[in-house]
Amino acid sequence: MVKIAIAGGSGSLYPQRHSTCFADESTCLPRTAVDVAQEVIDVLVATKRHEILLLSRKDAPDGWTVPGVQWVRTSYEDAQELASILQGVHTVLSFIVVHSDIGNTSQSNLIDASIEAGVKRFAPSEWASSSFEYMDWYAGKAEIREYLRKLNEDEKVLEYSLFQPGLFANYLTYPYKSANHVVPIETPIDFNSCRALVVDGAEDARITLTTVQDLAQVVARAVEYDGEWPMIGGVRGTELTVGQLLALGGKIRGSYSPLYSSFGGGREHTPRADLDRFRQELRCGQAQSF
Questions:
Q1: DSSP assignment, residue 201?
Q2: With b meaning 16 or more CB within 10 Å and e meaning fewer, what string describes 15-35?
Q3: Is the separation of the CB atoms in 97 and 128 below 8 Å?
Q4: Which of 88, 233, 262, 264 could bond 196 through an S-S bridge, CB–CB 3.0 to 4.6 Å?
Q5: Burial of 271 per CB tally in 10 Å (0-12, 13-18, 19+)
Q6: Could you give the CA distance from residue 240 to residue 265 in angstroms, rounded to a whole number?
Q7: Distance CA 33, CA 22 (A)
């Protein structure tokens, strides 16, 4: 049995919280990490082999109970309090929403507390792509990577691994759910509407697709792994080019009017000069991006 602490995984238990907004409320992003946490928790609970602490800023919802899971409230503001909570914990899995963690304070405190408490393993809040170009809302992930690297620069004080599954294939089933907790979102390639927004010349760019179910199974096995965790998790479902994904869409969904579809032979291109506008539209999650 492994004692596991999961940070940031309670948000999806509050139905109204499917997204989080920046301070000026001009941009809202899906709380993907929170939903992924619930997928992972389900798999870990199903093994009936682990003791799980679910760290949350809120009290547990009325009537909430999950066998093998203990709800612990914390503000993440006091590293010493966190260290006390983490006593006896073997592995910490962080699903803290990085774009709402100003200055990475919560996750940095969690890391410091893990070291203080003698935690063996730590998984920072990654759960996405390894590259963040044009995704500035993920800047906090890169900063935490550097924080962990520096902590271990002279000697290893905390074993950690970056779980980077790429894009969840479950998003491509929008608007239909294909997972218990992960909510599908509109992406630049929309199979349902048979349309795509493609950066000019990017057809050969390679992307990684992994189902959240596969990721959850990998994490569950990693928790029980006896050897040392690699720094890079190496999670990969399918790797293909954007062009191959578009071709797959055409095979599945058929031909459509070039006005609306990149699958039907006519592709709507976004010049590289428009990438800033494209990025902002993605941040806002607006369908009119297409």
A1: T
A2: eeebeeeeeeeebebbbbbbb
A3: no
A4: 262
A5: exposed
A6: 20
A7: 16
Report field, pTM of the whole predicted structure over 0.90: no
Query: Rg of the chain over CA atoms, in angstroms?
Result: 20
Contacts for 171-176: CB closer than 8 Å, 24+ residues apart:
172/209
Contact 127, 165 (CB under 8 A): yes
Q: Are 16 and 28 in contact (CB under 8 A)?
A: no
Angle CA(221)–CA(209)–CA(250) in degrees, nearest 5?
Answer: 145
What sections of the chain are H helices per DSSP?
A: 32-47, 79-85, 105-117, 139-151, 212-224, 242-253, 275-284
How far is it, in rounded angstroms, from Cα 246 to Cα 216?
27
For each successive 10 residues of the chain (290 residues), what is the average pLDDT? 90 49 39 87 96 95 92 96 98 94 95 98 94 78 96 96 95 94 87 80 88 97 96 92 87 56 46 50 37
The token duo for 67 is 């066998």
Q: Is 62 helix (H, G, I), strand (E, B) or coil?
A: coil
Q: Which position has the token pair 């795509």?
A: 196
Give me the count of residues in the chain. 290
DSSP 162: B
